[in-house]
Specification:
Elements lengths: L3 E8 L3 H12 L4 E4 L8 H4 L20 H6 L9 H14 L6 E2 L4 E7 L4 E6 L2 E10 L21 E4 L14 E5 L3 H11 L4 E6 L5 E3 L7 H9 L1 H10 L18 H14 L16 H18 L3 H7 L11 E3 L11 E5 L5 E4 L3 E4 L3 E3 L2 E4 L8 H4 L2 E3 L6 H4 L18 E3 L12 H21 L4 E4 L1 H16 L29 H13 L5 E4 L4 E3 L1
Parallel strand pairs: 1-2, 1-6, 2-3, 4-17, 6-18, 7-16, 8-9, 8-16, 9-12, 10-11
Antiparallel strand pairs: 4-5, 5-6, 13-14, 14-15, 19-20, 20-21
The structure holds flavin-adenine dinucleotide and NADP nicotinamide-adenine-dinucleotide phosphate (NAP).
Amino acid sequence: MRGTRLDALVVGAGFSGLYALHRLRAVGLAARLVERGGGVGGTWYWNRYPGARCDIESVDYQFSFSPELLAEWQWTERYAAQPEILAYLEFAADRLDLYRDIELSTSVTSARYDEERGRWQVTTDRGDHDARFLVLAVGNLSTPKPPPFPGLERFAGEWYVTARWPEEPVDLRGKRVGVIGTGSTGIQVITVTAAVADELWVFQRTPNYSMPAHNGPLDPELQREVKRTFASRRHMAERAEAGVPFPAPEKAARDVGEEERRRMYEEGWARGGINSLSYAFTDFHSDEFANATGAEFTREKIRGIVRDADVAELLSPAHHIGTKRTCVDTGYYEVYNRPNVHLVDIRSAPIEEITPRGIRTAAAEHELDVIVFAIGFDAMTGPFLDIDLRGRGGVMLRERWADGPRTYLGLTVAAFPNLFLVTGPGSPGVLSNMVVSIEQHVDWLADCIASMRAGGLEVIEATPEAEEEWVAHVAELAGATLYPQAGSWYVGANVPGKPRVFMPYVGGCGRYRAECDEVARAGYRGFLLSRARQFTSG
Ligand code: FAD
Ligand code: NAP
């Protein structure tokens, strides 16, 4: 088994994979890309559910590396909807002439590192590849959780998983619809479906904080200004904590009086967006008091919007604000004032089964025509562990990560030479504007490969010591914040049996970039680099 001989194989055709293919070609590699979906786009190919749109402003949620793409593409809204982002990624793949090296409808099932030859033997469901480098641009929100409810096979109506929404339109008009899940996805589906469904039943286990998007058409003048100043805008985003171009906060919440705090939060709420409140204070994610002020401000807003006090109470989250990804909405809380929307508390009365007629909870049976599962993903590790990956000595990634993922820089894994992860565990990806993180990761790995080739080196591998230090560094940074306390997908709490390890790097995009750059400057410190099987320390 050898298959097509390549310098590099990229897996996944979302933002990460498309950019990786482009950059690897640019450094002179014979590279190809395989993608499970029938088209490019990744997240934006799969998540076609009603209401899907970005929570980072469109003008920042785009590639920065190509002046042509930037000049040609016009966004129509402050927060673009899924069809527009998908069209953008198709446009990018076309303009960059990527399609000729992309194999669609192809899944990588296993990959084995051949130590003798220093190459990856990759098996897909449509043939094999033999590649020097393997770049897993498989996403971290790309393995949807299957509905775990008994009886689903007997349900007489239609049912959909949001991240596998069909391409053909689904008509929810006049139907009795049940939505399970109130994360970012559920909130978007619920808001849009409320306006068309006959009756909408929302099955909520845990409420989330949601900030107003204040979405609307993008002012053409503003867009021209963004294009004109894009380089400095992106430069600022790359050095900011969350990959968005806002100045960092300067004060702690306690440094200002209550009135001033409220004024700042009101200003943030009026501006809208995912960082409406969190950019007010330096200690928002690390100090109980600071966080409580933002959480209570949001709960007050919910009480002010939702007329039924009991429903408002049920919608009010108790966890630290921002420690699960904050949602962004266009009229979410308002839908609970509609007579056709019903909130079902499945915390107190859990779902027991799906019946032929609908959903039965411990309290009642709800008759439904359609069930929508917005129950999230096996996030961050799922897409990597779905592949049977074997490194040096046949070691399995599933074994290495049995107690939680371990990486060096979120980009590499000890004992898995020439393997690169994009936005892997231990990277800041999921806590940031992902496009900013993706471009940084891909640039770093492409530069690394280019420098290896310039030096006649063929194999790079993280040392176990460097990996150990990075894992400890990631944990130490997280430990100084409130993040690990939430039962979020960041800690694997949403998947039964998954190790409870806080996975993202919380130090922010700017600090992470500096740390990665420093590793490269120091001759790829923490890596072993070799020509053949003879290692030289980096
Ligand atoms: P993906 O887009 O997930 O692409 C990975 C691809 O790899 C997929 O197409 C998948 O099919 C393919 N793949 C996986 N395994 C295999 C395999 N074994 N073989 C072959 N192919 C494989 N982030 C933000 O910063 N801002 C947002 O507004 C935002 N909105 C989001 C909305 C939704 C609904 C979701 C689910 C996520 C959102 N995210 C957002 C996160 C989003 O995933 C990233 O922004 C970005 O799109 C990820 O790009 P990617 O290329 O890394 O991964
Ligand atoms: P999620 O945040 O994990 O939310 C899943 C929801 O389903 C939660 O409310 C969860 O409740 C519920 N749930 C899961 N399993 C359940 C079960 N067995 N029974 C009952 N309820 C169950 O997933 P998501 O909403 O798909 O979002 C994932 C991430 O994707 C987001 O955090 C964000 O990063 C990204 N995203 C972004 C946008 C955007 O606005 N641009 C849109 C969608 C997604 P519990 O909390 O109680 O577990």
